[in-house]
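Archive transcription. Copying these from loose printouts into the bound notebook so they stop getting lost. Printout 1 of 2:
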Amino acid sequence: MTLKVLINPLNVELTAEKGDILLTVMREGGVRIESLCGGKRICGKCRVIHESGDIRVFSDAPQKFLSHAELDEGYQLACATRLLGDCVFTIPTESRIDRPQILLSAELYIEEPDPSSRKYIIEASPYVDSPLLIPHRTIRLQGYTGVQPRVGEEVYGKLQVIGDGPVTATVSRTNGFPEIIDVEPGERTGYNYGLAVDIGTTTVVGFLVDLKTGNILARASEMNRQITYGEELVTRISFARTKEGLDRLQRIVMSTINDVIAQVTQEAGVDPEDITDVCAGGNTVMNHLFAGIDPSYLEIANVKVSREPIIKKAKRLGLNVNPEAYAYCVPNVSRFLGGDAIGDVLASDMHNSEELSLMVDLGTNGEIIFGNSSWLFSSSCASGPAFEGTGVRHGMRGARGGIDHITIDPETYEAEYTTIENARVKGICGSGLIDLVAELFGVGLLDFVGKLIPGKTDRVREGKWGLEYVVVPGDKTTIGQDIVLTQTDLDYVIDSKAAACGAITVLMKKLKITIEDIRYFYVAGAFGTYTDLGNAVKMGIFPELPNAEVHPIGNGSLSGAYATLMSMGKRREAKDIAERTVYVDLLVDVEFMEEYSRALYLPGAKEYFPSFSRAR
């Protein structure tokens, strides 16, 4: 029995079969809704308001995550709702996925561009009658030096139907040897473009680049549509265990990238078929899903991961560029240290410095790398999405209406805050969440084990999920509810901060280095750009580093993709970095649990936070 499902306020009508789960129907219909756990009914984020129609709630999850008032208003969870008849639902403000504030500033200056893909005028076209002779003939190219490029039969076939006049050949060196991948009539050497793309767990960001000059012609970003299948990497790995699931996630990320391509080519007035090279930066899981490679083996601790770059033809992936173009992925190191981290190292240049550096990139997954020109030592931690503003009741990504910075008056205990785009409050994003925890601790509303202290102010009150601090009263928000930070939220944030700090300090312990030894501290991504790093230290995400220069490096993953797009030398550097980076898998490391446990306190162990210890 076919049903109709109307989704407001999007005014989207979906079709479903009787008994279908609402979240599944919304995913397949392209409706984006928050779903941190990917439909496992353990996060409570996929909220909808049931306006009309026959449904059946088949789980007790709504009772766990929704208040009595919300249930009375018709709130349900899309993951726990079966459709039994034609229905109407509204996605409330807090469950809509808004366009986030995305970090676009990222590129490296390449002094001497040496892209993999170049275009040349053909001096002579060897027309032949017998295809048996084709492999033994060559094509002479104006200005080309080096190993004679390979030529496929398809290229010869194109040459034989091109009329008189100049002919342009595209030569790619991506696949380990020079290869003529395309020919076209006319003088087209000035029409050669590349795409640098950061394939993030949450967002996809792309640059359209003139391969001749290195100039960035256009930039665009989109939410990664895989997000409704789960925000955490392990959730997507689980979904991709079947071929059907893997194919779906690959198609979804490709459609997201193709939207980015459409935006940048339209803005720059470029034909997508003139994009002859693609370089992608992403974590190991995202690289696998991009290339359609089964990632399920990445769940195994200490599993060996290839450190060779993944290379695929665009036509095999479904990229809307020149079908013969190659897509190159910046190489991975381990199951949770991927090409994005290699891009961070390239952006920081720490691998060429004699001084000791620390690089940290915190998002849904955290990457930590210590090192210098002689060695690189790394790990990763499952910090969860708390630092991206999700995983807490009123958390959100860095989008319009998100509280991005907070201070608390030590006398009145009231929060003063700013929001993205100065909009009315919708929730708290990652940088605001870090400020909030640090401020609560600083004014004495939070003890050293991360527990709210009642009795000092009526802003700390008893709620459905235990004690909570009222950040913003409901009459000042877009959702019509008080924005609160609950004790459950705090426990989750403290756990995330302990994972990050513990990962850093366990590596320091193994390397026998102290906080005084680190000379440069590179913080990558949106975290490093928008977060008050002083508050991050105050709540114990990072140790104090008294002798370190702090350098936010922006979107290092995108920087790595841009660098490897414009320089074959940078591709060699990326491969060298990947090959010589030692990786410690914390899942099987006996010392990590000890460091993690010590980091559960605010801010943490005294040898890593000496200023706080003296102040106390």
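Printout 2 of 2:
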Amino acid sequence: MSAVFVRVALDHPLPTLFDYRYDLAPEPAPGLLVRVPFGRRDVVGMICEVTGRSDVPAEKLRAVDAICDVCAPLADEWRALAAFAADYYQRGLGEVALPALPQALRDASRWARLFAPEECYRLLAAGRAALPDALPARASALRRLAEALAAQPTLAAADARALHPKASATLDDWQSKGWVALETVDDTTGAVQPPALTDDALLPRLTHEQQEAVDAITAAHRFAPFLLHGVTGSGKTEVYLHALAGLLHARPDAQALVLVPEINLTPQFEAAFRTRFAALPDGAIVTMHSGLAEGERARNWIAAHTGRARIVLGTRLAILASLPKLSLIVVDEEHDPAYKQQEGLRYSARDLAIYRAKQLGIPVVLGSATPSLESWWQAEQGRYTRLSLTRRAVAEAVLPAVKLVDLEEEHRRGRASIDGLSGPLVAALKGRLERGEQSLVFLNRRGYAPILSCDACGWVAGCPRCSAYVVLHKPERSLRCHHCGWESRIPKSCPDCGNVDIAPMGRGTQRVEETLASAVPGARVLRIDADSTRRKGSAQALFSDVHAGEVDILVGTQMIAKGHDFQRVTLVGVLNADTALFSHDFRASERLFAQLMQVSGRAGRSGLPGEVMIQTRYPRHALYHALGRHDYVGFARSTLAERRDAHLPPFVYQALLRAEGRTLEAALAFLAQAAAVFATLPGADRVTVYDAVPLTIVKVFNVHRAQLLLECASRAALQTALRAWQPALRELRGVLRWAVEVDPLDI
């Protein structure tokens, strides 16, 4: 028998495959996961090639230890997607393929348990009758377990353990009493076919524009990129639901992928999908995001990989999920910067969604009230089909009126403000409270105050590890760096001069929450930001309070600005928007306009008149005037004209080389060497290389950072040059880390 060798992709910075001898009984196949020795460790890799020869002498090759034969090989299409991402974003194949898998799947010791038939508990009639009286009054965990059993046909053993630490013993006891039954469900097969879906007559009636959009999407049986441009509240989600229903009616075994930008948007989408597709079998709708426990994420990935999951809802990491029967991709809020990964493989999930749809020959829907200028430009050129929803779905609902509160004028007229809240805004908040309506106050800055300073000597509290100020968090009585996490107690006096009158400057959401409690007496004020939603499930609970009407004024950051359907909100107040008007980042105005349009769209969704009040010192700024008209089209066209004149994306293509060193001089020296090497490459004359510069926040966690910007009118020419540059960059020394980022969003 001739020798068999396999070439394996490993999660390693070297952009190469590693040869191993294959001596095991099951035949190897590309896409299978294997455990191999690498250095002094055993690691999991993916077979990419099976061959009868190797350039490495056979006696020097190590052998594959084990193969994950219980998991079907990753399909050719999935491996092609990973290879494209690796090539385009200038990383090794293993750096893409392996991190795309759940952590539990990269641990060979867990393979058998992951793919074993799952144990589930089913509540019997005797238990449904006996359990309510058998539970102690204060046993909240037991009650959650009983409610979960009653709410669904079966409850997975792993989910039960997440609800109650002693769930196994408790359920065994209930089983002995005849209250629950233990069943085994084989989740590794995709043979289950869904029954008929909800009758069309029971679905919400679509507007004419919505129906045209649904018809266009469902009629597409090949690669067809759609840009669904709908004003806030126009019913884009309903278009997605009808398109999914049409797909699953026509092809019951088809799979669909729905991407959302943030984890906190998944609960409402999941609830809508489960309600609409209640007839689908258990496990046919799954979520994928970093907030899931590793076991749950692995089970959901396996359900998608085996074809059992029909609808996969997730954040950006879900774009790399294995979906063998993928037939439709939806990217909601496609403009959102959260779709761009900022660490490791710096990919754009939206752009990979377009590529994946083209690769598979399927439709892809990009939805937004404020599309990215890149997507808008593609639609203007006819490469994407634009579908427009120009009116709100609720017949009596209209877009909110936008009012600019001129802070300079308020000051000139001697009108008092209350710690940053203008008189007109406070009056409007009180009016909504009297009418029993809800208000939303938006400030994209968390904490109590961004600066703590001394008036006597000018001292400002800074982070000892970063070139940034620390943020005052008053409820926690601490100073915290939002870049590295460093914390300290609030000093009682200035550490430089001893002055006890140190004071906070500026405002964060905590300070606004405190101010509103006194400025609007009797109002129930709730703050939602990254600090108030740290615990798992806390964001969902807080949003539930808002929807239930238990909140009068909601204060928050960008977490509350998009996607949420607040039926009772009629007033939106915006604080401190001016800071983005004069940013050095050429995308700042685009992001600000999108952010303000999105947060404005939370008002007046149920038919009650909505109003948006923006506090500004620049009421004549063109951006605010376009916002007042809800004129995204005009804003996009004028901004694109500016970008064309300035030779900025989407009219040119960019890449960054970032370097991190122990000193700034080391990082800049590395980039200077890299630029000199680049100049010698073939085709380098077609690429503009700018001078190396420090990042805005130059030091983070005692590491100094700098960057080198490259720009080219041809995407292909830039990619060719970057590929040729990589080997030379690996030969350079002098920095801790370096990375190439293609299509950067933050420059």
